[in-house]
Design a protein that fits this description.
The chain contains 11 helices and 17 strands. 28% of the residues lie in helices and 25% in strands. The relative contact order is 0.16.
């Protein structure tokens, strides 16, 4: 079968499409014929080896996927051969104290498909059966293969960690990326008032078309936080969704209201940032880290998305052989929405 292979960390030229053996599977696993797989920023970090990553080589990246079950282990009972499914990329042991209380993304051995295990950029992938869920019926394979990681991450940030309530105000940095757009969709689903930022007027216009109430071009204004204060009549927002990190961290502390919440899930800029501790305690702020989500988060997110017939925003599609071009588009920030890799058709 064909798969995207990394033999060593580095730039785009390290992505190779090669013939590899079909995956082996255990009694608790299934094999999925991958129809579509979504690109995520995690795939860039894995390729580059960020955080002193030392993966067994060769490695197959890719976290999201939708496809059809083609084989199942003897102990698998939740799916059968022929089922159309999606993959929950979050890997947990299912038996530690955190998993037992339903916090699977806090598992002591938590991992992610394509990071701690061979991933989904392949014609077939072996996955623990507990990580396989029915494909939402209102989505096609491209949509289903591109929504879990970003929408699950956004759901946990907004609903579980920040406890978003209808009518609250939310600031989302860097609209156009997968998690940011997912957060916009979910926040609007909860009847929140949403402010988004970008350096692209085109992206801001499109964000307005899909529900953003206010848009800010951070290259065109002197003070993003002051713009947020102006929009909120000097109050500040209730919740900030930050996928950027160091570049937006100072803005967060100036733009959030007293008693507000800042939720961080990633660092597309630098990971080291100075924190104003006086502002933190005086304004009684809540700083929340968030990674992926639990099985209950996924269940609730899929239930909400299905009821609303919500679909991920798709930027573009590419064949497996064009993985370098597709990844380059995401790496340079040209995308608005998810980039889908069409693996098998």
């Amino acid at each position: 079968m064909k798969a995207v292979i990394i033999h060593e960390h580095g730039e785009l030229d390290k992505l190779k499409v090669e013939e590899v053996p079909e995956p082996k599977y255990t009694e608790d696993e299934v094999v999925i014929k991958v129809h579509s797989a979504g690109l995520n920023h995690l795939d860039i970090w894995v390729r580059k080896g960020r955080g002193n990553l030392n993966l067994p080589k060769p490695h197959i990246p890719g976290s999201d996927a939708a496809g059809v079950v083609v084989a199942a282990g003897s102990k698998v009972t939740n799916v059968t051969v022929g089922d159309e499914v999606i993959v929950n990329p979050g890997l947990s042991c299912g038996s530690c104290e955190y998993c037992n209380r339903g916090e699977h993304s806090e598992c002591i051995s938590f991992g992610i498909m394509g990071l701690t295990r061979r991933g989904t950029f392949a014609e077939q992938v072996a996955v623990p059966s507990r990580n396989v869920w029915p494909k939402p019926s209102h989505m096609n394979f491209n949509e289903a293969g591109a929504f879990v990681l970003s929408h699950l991450t956004a759901w946990r940030m907004l609903m579980t960690r920040a406890q978003l309530k209808p009518g609250q105000t939310v600031l989302i940095h860097g609209i156009g990326g997968g998690v940011a757009l997912s957060a916009l969709q979910l926040a609007r689903l909860a009847n929140a008032e949403v402010i988004v930022t970008s350096s692209s007027d085109e992206k801001l216009e499109r964000a307005g078309q899909i529900g953003a109430d206010h848009t800010i071009n951070y290259r065109s204004v002197e003070d993003v936080a002051q713009n947020v204060k102006d929009i909120t009549s000097g109050r500040g927002v209730d919740i900030i969704i930050d996928t950027v990190g160091a570049a937006t961290w100072p803005i967060d502390f100036s733009a959030v209201r007293r008693g507000g919440k800042i939720v961080l899930c990633g660092v597309t800029s630098d990971a080291q940032a100075v924190t104003n501790l006086r502002t933190l305690y005086w304004n009684q702020l809540t700083i929340l880290g968030s990674t992926m989500g639990s099985e209950e988060d996924l269940h609730q997110m899929i239930k909400a998305v299905t009821k609303a017939k919500l679909k991920p925003i798709i930027d573009s599609k590419a064949k497996l052989e064009n993985i370098k071009d597709a990844t380059g588009r995401m790496e340079t920030g040209r995308q608005f929405g998810k980039i889908v890799i069409e693996v098998c058709r």
